[in-house]
Amino acid sequence: MALFPFCKTATGAVRVSRIQLLLYCVLLSLIIYFLHGRKAGGNVKSPHPYFRSMELTVGEETKNSNAELQRPAQTPWGAPLVWGDNRDSVSRRTEFAQLEVRVGLLTLVVGPYAQHVRRFISSAEIYFLPSQMVTYYILIDNPRMLDPPIKLGPGRQLKILPVAEFPGWDKLVYRRMPILADAIKNRIGKEVEYIFCADIDQEFTAPVEEEILGDLVATLHPEHYGKPQTALPYEKDEDSSAYVKEDEGDYYYTSELYGGLIRNVYRMAQGCSLLILKDQSNGMLASGREESYLNRYLITHRPTCVLSPEYNWWDSGLAADVPEKRLVSLGRQCEAFDAAKREKYRC
Hints:
36% of the residues lie in helices and 15% in strands. By secondary structure, the chain is of the alpha/beta class. Mean pLDDT is 81; it is low at 1-14 and 33-69.
């Protein structure tokens, strides 16, 4: 018996009963489903050109879209918000690939913080602008702590800038910005094009490359990234020179890494110094210490490049999730530890 038994009429025309036609349609649908439909239901790339270019499957669309929403590439005023692995960062690195720029990495080392110097420099040798000429400026109150000299790679050098010894951290809070401004003006200003200031109790753990270069660069605080403006810990005391009104501010920045063109960093250090000295003369200190004054300055002088929390991170319940931890704060990590862990890691 034929699968589809069509009959011819006397005139030669094909006559098909309704039942035969129905059976034909059902069988044809089943054949199409098994030969084509099941295959199409597998892992097929979306026909949309965006997903084809990203080589995403349909099942990955939601996951990757959410990731992009959580990682904006620009600030509200149009400055790049830098994530080390996004396309903009790759483009910025390519832009500087054919250029040789002179970059300074400056840190202040006083008292027991000298124990962090070798780890900081060793990690920077691996990850901090490895293809550029870098000068490490170590402002230190006891230069003998750097003996024997730290071995550096080609195009890298270390310069020791002696500073007065400080009796305690409270005094350092008042003096760090003025020390930075003085060092740039009198000793560093003509030696490098860019300068980055970092706390010494940190460690580079992944590449930090040319994507960070900008006119004025600030880094987002990992524990306050993504919070609404009203929840950011700006200075609330109206009598302080660091005071921020309720309708001011965009982000909260960390004081552990900032930089930019040498002239702009000098202006920032000088501006923060004036705010600090004004409060000091009135017997005041902002609740966030140096960080409060830095944030006050950056509200009225918005950075031209903002680094994501990848560039200053530590493990705490409040820290933002990041795809890569590029610069880890060991000091603030210790603050997040309980007593047992502080003893274990000798915090």
